[in-house]
Amino acid sequence: DAGVIQSPRHEVTEMGQEVTLRCKPISGHDYLFWYRQTMMRGLELLIYFNNNVPIDDSGMPEDRFSAKMPNASFSTLKIQPSEPRDSAVYFCASSLTGANVLTFGAGSRLTVL
Amino acid sequence: LAKTTQPISMDSYEGQEVNITCSHNNIATNDYITWYQQFPSQGPRFIIQGYKTKVTNEVASLFIPADRKSSTLSLPRVSLSDTAVYYCLVGNVDRGSTLGRLYFGRGTQLTVWP
User: Where on the phi/psi map is residue A112: left (φ > 0), alpha (ψ -120 to 50), or beta?
Assistant: First the structure.
């Protein structure tokens, strides 16, 4: 298995632009998580899905952030409009019920100018 | 939700054994203790998990006392490549409720020197 695949690996954009980050979880995994990592706040959970259904989105910072999981093999995290304080590394992770282990992707480094 | 407390940083030399202790006073009965390792520019990587007593794999050992309010990750004979951030997590990702919200925190930055 290729693991959790995220794209793009790096994104540089200007304030006000829309940003879409993509994630392909490991095949068969029924949980998908989106995390954000910054120096100041460490690794924070934004939202997670179970069987494509959002379970807990209390970590989503504000309405500018939205996440979808249209099917078991694809999820997106969208920021619209983006702001400089959104600059961070965004990680996607997936897990299988009963495994109690998260497998992370390589991350998407976002820079908003 | 059980949060964890661990040292912000630790230093060691190559060949030494490193023990990182994590405090989790509010651990729930169904919670597991899991440790992850993160290298720069990479996502965290699972290294070991336990429920009670001692667990050992090819990478590390995990010691959990009877009251489960703390745990210690032991890395034998560290090398320069063990320099990374180590996270201690407590939770049960199986639960579809708030217990599924695993808390990573800031982790412990381990630096191994030659």
Answer: beta
Give the three-state DSSP class for B52.
coil
Residue B14 CA to residue A104 CA, distance in Å, equals 28
Does residue A84 have a cis bond before it (omega within 30 degrees)?
no
Cβ(A105)–Cβ(A6) below 8 Å: yes
Q: Does A35 touch chain B (CB under 8 A)?
A: yes
For residue A82, the SS3 value is coil
Model confidence pLDDT, tens digit, residues B68-112: 999 999 999 999 999 999 999 888 755 544 435 677 878 999 999
| Nearest chain B CA: its distance from A24 CA (Å) | 15
Interfacial residues of B (vs A; Cβ cutoff 8 Å): 32, 34, 36, 41-46, 49, 87, 92-94, 96, 98, 100-107
